[in-house]
Specification:
There is one protein chain. The chain is globular. It has one domain: Kinesin, CATH 3.40.850.10. The strands form six sheets. Strands 2, 6, 7, 8, 9, 10, 13, 16, 17, 18 and 20 form an eleven-stranded mixed beta sheet that branches. The protein is built from eleven helices and 22 strands. The protein is α+β, with helices and mostly antiparallel strands. The longest helix is centred in the C-terminal third of the chain and has 23 residues. It is about 25% helix and about 25% strand. It starts with about 40 loop residues before the first strand and ends in a 10-residue tail after the last strand. Helix 3 crosses helix 5. Strand 16 and strand 17 form a beta hairpin. The structure holds adenosine-5'-diphosphate (ADP) and magnesium ion (MG). It holds the Pfam family Kinesin. Its main location: cytoplasm. GO terms for molecular function: ATP binding; microtubule binding; microtubule motor activity.
Length: about 400
């Protein structure tokens, strides 16, 4: 049986144009000035993060070839390359995790999710460029060894913001989370008990692409959501190779579902905030991957290629667009709404400043520049209060659940 869960039925978009209530004073995801307007074409917001040289890069004497020029501009200068790129914001090696949260527009994205929009932030770039660091920071090794608060990433900062807002709104928001990975073209649930199980990816006219039977776990505290993040991340496929000792071998999507439960709000708002940690592109030659590692790398590269292809096509003006091949990979199917549909998206491009990474860095910068031309038409999701979520069956454990946001505790 397919869970209704946090979706509680089909979103019913309200077609009235509406100026979004927040993010008008500061640049907000989707637009440089003013907030995105519901139903109006809105550009993706793309920011760039340049990580510091690592100890190994410094010891090797790698040259620093990327320089921030201020005002969202970055310059790459190396032997036959001299190019400047512009983004909504550039964070250089000295930027703190807090500066990235505040300067990227992440806070506004959280607020938009609370207003019923489907919001996505995704980090992309070469393997070892700082995607996972930006999203999660260095993860705590265990619950008794928490990570330093200053190093917490966009995810934990967003959770804090959501929980604070939820409390200030008199707890009328129900929060739940699901956590998936795409590993070798299989969508797997990182929260279900037992080994990660593959889930079907379906399409319906009203919902677009969706994952059937994914678990969604209700949370009300920082400890609870961080525990889910830690447990899910530990199940995620990672391997060690030449460029990164903990290289993620899967794309991971953690989605927080935000649903208003106020009886007076009819229909209720139902937003999502999805964090996408893409596995990094890699040249098999440089990472020294062979056997299973190279099979994984090929699958990662294929899906990133499909994503790049969709972004190139989406970057064309709407009237000139041809068919967008979202179906070419599971990743592009799951990101279809964020990239070309009714969502609001923030992209964080991550690069290394090292001369050794020059060609991957240039490729990320070109990719990110193209993504700035992609537009969506944001629509808030509204769900009728009369819809009665039916019983949910936990697929892995076969346990019937009585409430769509509750499932048995993780093992
Ligand atoms: P990716 O997820 O892109 O493969 P990681 O996030 O795992 O890369 O980062 C690779 C290494 O670089 C890690 O050891 C990480 O701690 C370090 N790192 C990345 N970004 C930063 C940063 N902004 N400041 C300090 N260290 C960083
Ligand atoms: Mg990673």
């Amino acid at each position: 049986m397919e869970p209704k869960g946090e979706r509680g039925g089909e979103p019913q978009p309200d077609s009235r144009p509406r100026t979004l209530p927040r993010g008008q004073e500061r640049p907000s995801p989707g637009e440089e000035q003013g907030g995105p307007v519901e139903g109006k074409e809105t550009r993706l917001r793309v920011v760039l993060r340049v990580r510091p040289l690592t100890g190994t890069e410094t010891r090797r004497g790698d040259q620093q070839v990327v320089h921030s020029l201020g005002d969202g501009a970055v310059h790459v200068s190396a032997a036959r390359h001299d190019a400047t790129f512009g983004f909504s914001a550039v964070f250089d090696a000295g930027a703190s995790q807090e500066a990235v949260f505040e300067g990227s527009g992440m806070r506004q994205l959280v607020e938009l999710a609370m207003d019923g929009f489907s919001c996505t932030v995704f980090a992309f770039g070469q393997t070892g460029s700082g995607k996972t660091y930006t999203l999660m920071g260095p993860l705590a090794q265990s619950e008794t060894q928490p990570a330093s608060p200053a190093l917490l990433g966009l995810m934990q900062r967003s959770f804090t913001c959501l929980l604070e807002q939820s409390r200030s709104r008199g707890s009328d928001l129900a929060l739940s989370a699901s956590y998936l990975e795409i590993y070798k073209e299989q969508v797997r649930d990182l929260l279900s008990p037992g080994p990660p199980c593959a889930l079907p990816l379906r399409w319906s006219k009203t919902r677009g692409f969706y994952v059937e039977n994914q678990l969604s776990v209700e949370f009300e505290s920082m400890e609870a959501i961080v525990r889910l993040l830690l447990q899910g991340s530990q199940r995620r496929r990672t391997s060690a190779h030449a460029l990164n000792r903990h290289s993620s071998r899967s794309h991971a999507l953690l989605t927080v579902h935000v649903r208003s439960r106020a009886a007076s709000t009819c229909p209720s708002k139902q937003g999502t905030l999805c964090f996408v940690d893409l596995a990094g592109s890699e040249r098999v030659k440089e990472t020294g991957s062979s056997g299973e590692l190279s099979v994984e790398a090929n699958s990662i590269n294929r899906s990133l290629l499909a994503l790049g292809h969709c972004i190139s096509l989406l970057a064309k003006p709407r009237g000139k667009r041809t068919h967008i091949p979202y179906r070419d990979s599971k990743l592009t199917r799951l990101l279809a709404r964020s990239l070309g549909g009714s969502g609001i998206t923030l992209m964080v491009a991550c690069i290394s400043p090292s001369s050794r990474c020059l060609s991957e860095t240039l490729s990320t910068l070109h990719y990110a520049s193209r993504a700035r031309k992609v537009t969506t038409r944001p629509m808030a999701n509204r769900v009728s209060q009369t819809e009665n979520p039916s019983e949910l069956l936990c697929p892995a454990a076969g346990t019937p659940l009585t409430h769509p946001f509750i499932h048995p505790p993780l093992p």
